[in-house]
Amino acid sequence: MRVRKSSQPVLSAMPVTRWPVLLLQAVFLVSFVTCNDAPPVPEEQLLIEKTSVPELCPRSVKEGDFVRYHYHGSFPDGTKFDSSYDRGTTYNVFVGKGQIIKGMDQALIGMCVNERRLVKIPPSLAYGSEGVANVIPPDAILHFDVLLLDIWHPDDKVETETYYKPENCSRTVQVSDFIRYHYNGTLLDGTLFDSSHNRMRTYDTYIGIGWLIPGMDTGLLGMCVGERRIITVPPFLAYKEDGDGKDIPPQATLVFDVVLLDLHNPKDGITSEVIYMPDNCERRTQAGDYIRYHYNGTLLDGTFFDSSYSRNRTYDTYIGKGYVISGMDEGLLRLCVGERRRITIPPHLAYGEEGRGKIPGSAVLVFDILVVDFHNPDDSVSITSQFKPSNCTVLSKNGDYLKYHYNATLMDGTVLDSTHQYGKTYNIVLGSGQVVMGMDIGLRDMCVGEKRTVIIPPHLGYGEAGVEGEVPRSAVLIFDIELLDLIPGLPDGYMFVWNEEVSPNLFEDIDKDKNGEIPLEEFSDYIKAQVDAGKGRLAPGFDAEKIIENMYKNQDRNQDGKITEAEFKLKDQEDKERHDEL
Ligand SMILES: *[C@@H]1O[C@H](CO)[C@@H](O)[C@H](O)[C@H]1NC(C)=O
Ligand SMILES: *[C@@H]1O[C@H](CO)[C@@H](O)[C@H](O)[C@H]1NC(C)=O
Ligand SMILES: *[C@@H]1O[C@H](CO)[C@@H](O)[C@H](O)[C@H]1NC(C)=O
Ligand SMILES: *[C@@H]1O[C@H](CO)[C@@H](O)[C@H](O)[C@H]1NC(C)=O
Ligand SMILES: *[C@@H]1O[C@H](CO)[C@@H](O)[C@H](O)[C@H]1NC(C)=O
Ligand SMILES: *[C@@H]1O[C@H](CO)[C@@H](O)[C@H](O)[C@H]1NC(C)=O
Ligand SMILES: [Ca+2]
Ligand SMILES: [Ca+2]
Going by DSSP bridges, is the β-strand pair 142-152/116-121 parallel, antiparallel, or unpaired? Predict the structure, then answer.
């Protein structure tokens, strides 16, 4: 067998431009023979001309291989006697087993896929002196223009070649896993027959349980998310002698370029990985708590799908009540404020086969979360004393006038407010509704000089609404408080009390000019004088003028701007019965 090497380098991409050259050679040969006017001498030797050789030739035909090829068969004068192209299907056959004429059996040896050969076969290696009735005359030399498209061998196995492996490859595909991947499927000659990209979605399937062709069922095993592989599947592990549809011919070797995007098992639960744990964690979330957290959501391959940060606010929800996907409901348990976790949720505990929005069906979700705060609707105010003076006998109670400093923060340390920045104390009458309920509670039973940390759940703070631009919705508040002054209040319901026995001649005492009636001015002067002399007390923390005015209006029964003795007595009488102001 003589193999003539092509004189020029031949580029695999240029078979078409070679074609006219071949034709010329064929014509030249024919004309040479006819010009000589000699009887055609049967050529005894097989002539092979490699007219196109691909750059890469990972495999070449050996005896026993099965091949698929196209050919154009002609006589030396160029007359066509047969062509696979006319039939639209490749010629498929085992090589070296006598299933084809000897010359072809020999000529195919050593060919690689996409190689093209012009083969000239003498009759002794073709149809001899008999020929084939009506097709091949006796002693015919046959020319075949052969293009090889496929090689495989019955002993072949699935071949996998990983060409990219991510740094972290902790979990790999096992039998019965569910996977999502992208692929480009080509025949061995490079013809694309299918691509998941054309459908704009991943291919999603169980693996190893017969949902896929056998070659893929094994070829995908052991992959990790992010890995890229070439999986070469011989036809007997793919679509066999039937092929599939119009794109996969019978007996075709298939080459899949695969990237794995997602992997889980229906038996999976969630996984929860601590990324950061604060030093102090006295309390952990439990079912029924209300939590505020930030999150970044990605798919397993790192594709971002959602983040609380993009909305500039935390995600807030009750835990364990089915308000969030079940995987998250579970993942939010046993967390500390300030903790960071990575929670990985399989689709059956997330958005299932349907997916939602940017989340594809059957996707595993990865949430990186940061716990901002949490509380329980049953929580009361938590009070921790930070400093107690040794003399802590006079304790604050409702009605007391308190002067205190505070630093207010959120649980994550965000500073909300501080009295120190205004350079003066915050002053309130305890129990009068001047501060949120939680603060009223937090300031109770405190003595001057005491320091406390008061934690206020939102239902005793600023509630679900928060304060626009200042306090987030449903936020737990932390107040560090120092009580600087306490002015005891009056008994409940009193705005003025006498410190000592009331003058028996009260009306006369107040009626300074002794004209038998008391205008507001006389009344006001008198009360203020008593307060100054320490004989009586006005409720601290309120506007004295207002209190006195109210007292006066109470006494001036007919509201004519003066109190008469009769009005005074009447009111005094009632008050003794009703325990009211004066
Ligand atoms: C790989 O995993 C390790 C440990 O979990 C982690 O520290 C590292 O950041 C990971 N690398 C990548 C590229 O994800
Ligand atoms: C498939 O082809 C597309 C488009 O050419 C390409 O982006 C992708 O990387 C290829 N490979 C896989 C595994 O999808
Ligand atoms: C979030 O806040 C940033 C900076 O304050 C602002 O630029 C952005 O528009 C806000 N985004 C939304 C969704 O409110
Ligand atoms: C979310 O991503 C942003 C930007 O990368 C990062 O600053 C933030 O810490 C992440 N949050 C969580 C909870 O992982
Ligand atoms: C404790 O303080 C109260 C009120 O300030 C005061 O009356 C009392 O004398 C103090 N007792 C001692 C032992 O200092
Ligand atoms: C508030 O914070 C400042 C600065 O840390 C500190 O000096 C002050 O004592 C704090 N006030 C209270 C009431 O805790
Ligand atoms: Ca008077
Ligand atoms: Ca009157």
Answer: antiparallel
**Ligand 4 within 6 A of 294 CB?**
yes
Distance CA 379, CA 366 (A): 31
User: Which numbered ligand comes closest to the C-alpha of 166?
Assistant: 1
CA–CA dist 299, 34 (Å, integer): 73
CA-closest candidate to residue 411, choices 375, 387, 451: 375
Q: If you average pLDDT over residues 373-399, what whole number do you get?
A: 96
| Annotated catalytic residue, options 81, 206, 305, 494 | 305
Whether the predicted pLDDT of 21 surpasses 60: no
The maximal CA–CA distance of the chain, rounded, in angstroms, is 164
Mean pLDDT of 405-422: 95
Residue type, 251: Q
Q: pTM for this one?
A: 0.80
Sorted by where each begins, the domain ranges of the chain are 2-152, 159-264, 271-374, 382-487, 496-578
Write the class of the CATH domain 271-374: alpha beta
Handedness of CA 470, 472, 473, 475 (dihedral sign): negative
Q: What's the pLDDT score for residue 26? A: 35
User: Span 2-152: which CATH code?
Assistant: 3.10.50.40
d(CA 148, CA 116): 7
Task: Taking each helix axis as running N to C, give the angle between helix 544-555 and helix 520-532, from 0 to 180 degrees, rounded to the nearest 10.
Answer: 130
% of the chain with per-residue pLDDT over 70: 91
Q: Which fold has domain 382-487?
A: Chitinase A; domain 3 (3.10.50)
Measured over the CA atoms of residue 388, residue 393, residue 399 and residue 404, the dihedral's sign is: negative
Query: For residue 81, is pLDDT > 50?
Result: yes
Q: What is the per-residue pLDDT for 561?
A: 92
| Position 42 confidence tier, pLDDT thresholds 50, 70, 90 | low
Residue 258 Cα to ligand 2 midpoint, Å, equals: 8
